[in-house]
Amino acid sequence: MAISKQYLKSKPVCKVTFSVEAKEAKKVAVVGDFNNWDPKGSALKKLKNGTFKGTLNFPKDHSYEFKYLIDGEFVNELEGDGLQWNDYAGAENSVLKV
């Protein structure tokens, strides 16, 4: 799993590309507090090599909690900007700072 960030000079936006190696998976999405944990509109596209990849735009100077939803199972991004405990979920979530 990996995250890459590209800050735009013309807008206060950061393009974040998510890559998840999940050759056996059928569906992968990025869900978090930025989209009310809804996988619609945040699905990653499966590439021929089995990696799922997608880019989302985020407003700069914010922090977000998120996870990957891989075939219905929540998975943290270990290469994120940290982990944060979430009392509602009763688990840690990955953190994205842009």
Could you explain how this protein is built, in words?
- With 98 residues, this protein is an all-beta fold.
- The chain has a single domain, classed as Immunoglobulins (Immunoglobulin-like).
- Helix content is 0%, strand content 54%.
- The protein is built from no helices and 9 strands.
- The protein has strands at 2-7, 13-21, 28-32, 45-46, 51-59, 63-70, 73-75, 83-86, 91-97.
- The strands form 2 sheets. Strands 3, 6, 7, 8 and 9 form a 5-stranded antiparallel beta sheet that branches. Strands 1-2-5-4 form a 4-stranded antiparallel beta sheet, with no helix packed on it.
- A hairpin with a 2-residue loop joins strand 6 and strand 7 (73-75).
- The protein is globular, with a radius of gyration of 13 Å.
- The two termini are 18 Å apart.
- The mean pLDDT is 95.
Quick summary of this structure?
With 98 residues, the protein is an all-beta fold. It has a single domain, classed as Immunoglobulins (Immunoglobulin-like). The chain has strands at 2-7, 13-21, 28-32, 45-46, 51-59, 63-70, 73-75, 83-86, 91-97.
Low-confidence stretches: none
Determine the CATH superfamily. Immunoglobulins
Distance between the termini: 18 Å
Q: Which structural class matches the secondary elements?
A: mainly beta
CATH architecture: Sandwich
The fold-level CATH name is Immunoglobulin-like
The coarse overall form would be globular
Any idea of the CATH class?
Mainly Beta
The gyration radius over C-alpha positions equals: 13 Å
Most strands sheet = 5 strands, antiparallel
- Estimate what percentage of residues fall within beta strands: over 45%
Protein name: Glycoside hydrolase family 13 N-terminal domain-containing protein
Pfam families: CBM_48
GO molecular function: hydrolase activity, hydrolyzing O-glycosyl compounds
